[in-house]
């Protein structure tokens, strides 16, 4: 059954995380991070950090629904969008480090899904009324950055080496998702909101191709970068359950509250 509330989304993400833990699947890494993001948005709505709480919950549910649908399509042997296929398939590859896997999911979900979700939530001339709350999400999530950075470092002890590489640091990657990619998503939402369905479908196809191209670079960068990332990967934890437990720390905290 499709999610209709943020609590439905959180329960669905819990199901993916539990499945991934049992299967020792790295497909759960993004779900674990995304659950914390969703929880932060839920808390922001409860604390009146948004102007239109009803609209924000609808955006959150529409946004999450695209990931949940893509995940179920992939797990059942169907083909989701190209950018999600790349992110999901990378979970079976040895080389990508945890940050690469997270960024592949962030790429598909923000560079593709977010603009679509915003346009669907507030179509036509309704979209400008969503912008203030759309931008406010960045402030709500900013507090997660340092926490997630420290937690990823616990399972990837050489992650600091990224400082010397073109990929920069994990916090820069996360900041990118909250800043540059969200601006990109908003720009595309503005373009898609007034479109009739056939025109929007074509625009989504083109946007997916663009996001997929970046996703390929994330999970399979040039060989020089692969070589530079190798020491990080060699010392990174290969214990999928341990990584999931670290990334899903917010789940345990919420359950204990």
Mean pLDDT comes to 88
Uncertain residue ranges: 169-175, 252-257
**Beta-strand proportion:** under 5%
Ends distance: 27 Å
Question: Which structural class matches the secondary elements?
Answer: mainly alpha
Oligomeric status: single chain
Number of domains: 1
How does this model look, in words?
The protein is mostly helical. It has 13 helices and no strands. Helix 1 runs parallel beside helix 3 (53-75). The longest helix has 24 residues, at 98-121. The chain is globular, with a radius of gyration of 18 Å. It starts with 5 loop residues before the first helix and ends with a helix. The model is unreliable at 169-175 and 252-257 (pLDDT under 50).
List the helices and strands and how they pair.
Layout: H1 6-23, H2 28-46, H3 53-75, H4 82-89, H5 98-121, H6 131-142, H7 144-155, H8 170-178, H9 180-192, H10 197-219, H11 223-235, H12 240-247, H13 249-256
Helix pairs in contact: 1-2, 1-3, 1-12, 2-3, 3-5, 4-5, 4-10, 5-8, 5-9, 5-10, 7-8, 7-12
Descriptive tags:
13 helices, mainly alpha, 74% helix
Task: Provide a compact summary of the structure.
This protein has 257 residues and is mostly helical. The chain is 74% helix and 0% strand.
């Amino acid at each position: 059954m499709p999610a209709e509330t943020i609590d439905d989304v959180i329960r669905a993400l819990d199901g993916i995380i539990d499945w991934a833990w049992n299967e020792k699947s790295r497909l759960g890494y993004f779900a674990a991070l995304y659950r914390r993001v969703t929880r932060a948005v839920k808390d922001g709505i409860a604390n009146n950090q948004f102007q239109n709480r009803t609209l924000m919950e609808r955006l959150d549910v529409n946004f999450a629904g695209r990931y949940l649908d893509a995940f179920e399509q992939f797990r059942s042997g169907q083909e989701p969008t190209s950018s999600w296929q790349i992110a999901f398939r990378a979970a079976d590859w040895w080389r990508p480090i945890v940050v690469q896997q997270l960024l592949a999911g962030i790429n598909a979900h923000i560079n593709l899904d977010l603009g679509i979700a915003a346009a669907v939530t507030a179509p036509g001339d309704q979209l400008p009324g969503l912008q203030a709350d759309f931008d406010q999400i960045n402030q709500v999530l900013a507090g997660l950055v340092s926490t997630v950075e420290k937690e990823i470092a616990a399972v990837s002890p050489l992650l600091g080496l990224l400082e010397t590489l073109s990929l920069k640091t994990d916090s820069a990657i996360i900041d990118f998702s909250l800043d540059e990619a969200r601006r990109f998503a908003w720009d595309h939402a503005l373009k898609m909101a007034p479109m009739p369905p056939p025109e929007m479908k074509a625009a989504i196809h083109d946007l997916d191709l663009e996001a997929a191209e970046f996703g390929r670079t994330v999970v399979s960068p040039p060989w020089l970068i692969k070589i530079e990332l190798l020491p990080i990967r060699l010392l990174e934890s290969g214990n999928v359950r341990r990584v999931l437990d670290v990334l899903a720390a917010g789940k345990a905290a919420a359950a204990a509250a």
